[in-house]
Write a structure and sequence with these properties.
The complex is a heterodimer of chains A (195) and B (166). With 195 residues, chain A is an all-alpha fold. Chain A has nine helices and no strands. Chain B has a four-stranded antiparallel sheet. A four-stranded antiparallel sheet of chain B has the order 4-3-5-6. The chains are: A mainly alpha (195), B alpha+beta (166).
């Protein structure tokens, strides 16, 4: 039950950020460039550990220390769920079907890249977020090529990679700063132990 | 921030610089403009003919009968926009092409930077429209829509296109 509340909380946060993004009149004249604020929630959630399960299965703790990516620990699945739900809901609220298609393609690639980056374990949240931002933009350009049947939108790529790197780095930094507070209030392992 | 992060960011920026140099070196000024609907090329026109006397010329694309009937009309002044129809209004100033107005919801095409070089394009996804600049090397005629060979639209005239879709 607590998890449901948490996920609802995260989803509404992501939606609010998506709404804020539509309010910021940021335009670079290149389609596809945006801040990607909701990705902040996705990155945070990816790193968030499922406190309840970690607490219950005490026997799992040992295996956790050996390899950090034990099943039932990471909330990556939930992060993915929130991501998809957020895109569909905000798409219908603030934009249109085309935008949903684009965003889903971007999000799919971005999530794959971020999971991969996180598994590599050499990147911090900044690196993971940069990977996500760049992958998101590449996913969108691929869809653009498929939809428009023009292979020459390639000259967007430098702009999109730059934008993905910058927004990714900034969001990653923000996520890093926010994480301790989230751990404190959302019931991390430490928080659960104290009860 | 770990070392891998810095390498990743540096790598991204390196790719950007490399690609930018590549695109700048390969850049050629365009001389043709092509207009495609739903992936099918409808018009291919000379930019020089479209930009009369270096003054901004307006071209209004109207979609009728759900895109089966597409008209392009030429205006010297900013025209009155259709109220109920789908449309895209693009302008040619010298060699620069910009999208001035569109009825689409996202308005991404309208905010697009001006295009002038070979292979640059403005895409309006909701209206399935692609305006692309082509280089001087390709002066060949389009494969489709052959009736309107030198299809520079005349003032205020309708130019219905045959066999556009399906």
């Amino acid at each position: 039950m607590k998890k449901t509340v948490q996920l609802g909380f995260f989803l509404s946060l992501a939606l609010i950020l998506a709404y804020i993004e539509t309010l910021i009149p940021l335009s670079f004249g290149i389609p596809g460039i945006k801040l990607g604020l909701p990705n902040l929630i996705v990155v945070l959630l990816m790193y968030q550990k499922d406190a309840k399960q970690g607490y219950r299965n005490k026997e799992n703790v040992k295996t956790d220390k050996a390899g950090l990516n034990t099943v039932g620990q990471s909330m990556a699945k939930e992060a993915f769920l929130i991501n998809v739900l957020r895109i569909v809901l905000s798409g219908f609220m603030f934009s249109n079907l085309y935008a949903i298609m684009y965003a889903l393609a971007g999000a799919l690639l971005s999530f794959t890249a971020m999971s991969f980056g996180k598994k590599m374990r050499c990147f911090s949240m900044i690196g993971v977020s940069v990977l996500g931002g760049v992958a998101h933009n590449i996913g969108q350009i691929v869809i653009a090529i498929l939809v428009v049947e023009t292979f020459y939108v390639g000259y967007y790529i430098p702009f999109l990679i730059t934008a993905g790197t910058i927004t990714g780095a900034v969001l990653g930094l923000a996520a890093m700063e926010l994480r301790p507070y989230l751990m404190k209030y959302m019931g991390s392992e430490e928080g659960m132990k104290g009860r | 921030m770990t070392r891998a992060d810095i390498i990743l960011i540096a790598g991204c920026l390196f790719v950007v610089v490399f690609l930018s140099i590549f695109f700048i070196v390969c850049r050629r000024a365009g001389s043709m403009i092509t207009i495609s609907y739903d992936g099918i090329e409808l018009y291919r026109m000379s930019l020089e003919e479209l930009s009369l006397d270096n003054q901004t010329q307006y071209y209004l694309i109207k979609y009728e009968d759900e895109g089966r009937d597409i008209h392009i009309m030429h205006y010297e002044q900013y025209p009155e926009l259709p109220v109920e129809q789908s449309y895209n209004l693009f302008a040619v100033t010298g060699r620069n092409v910009t999208m001035e107005a569109a009825n689409c919801r996202d308005q991404i095409c309208v905010r697009h930077i001006p295009i002038k070089n070979d292979r640059e394009s403005i895409i309006c996804l909701p209206n399935k429209l692609v305006i692309e600049i082509r280089g001087s090397a390709e002066l060949s005629m389009p494969q489709t829509g052959g009736q309107n060979r030198d299809g520079t639209p005349e003032d205020e005239s309708d130019e219905p296109l045959d066999g556009v879709v399906g």
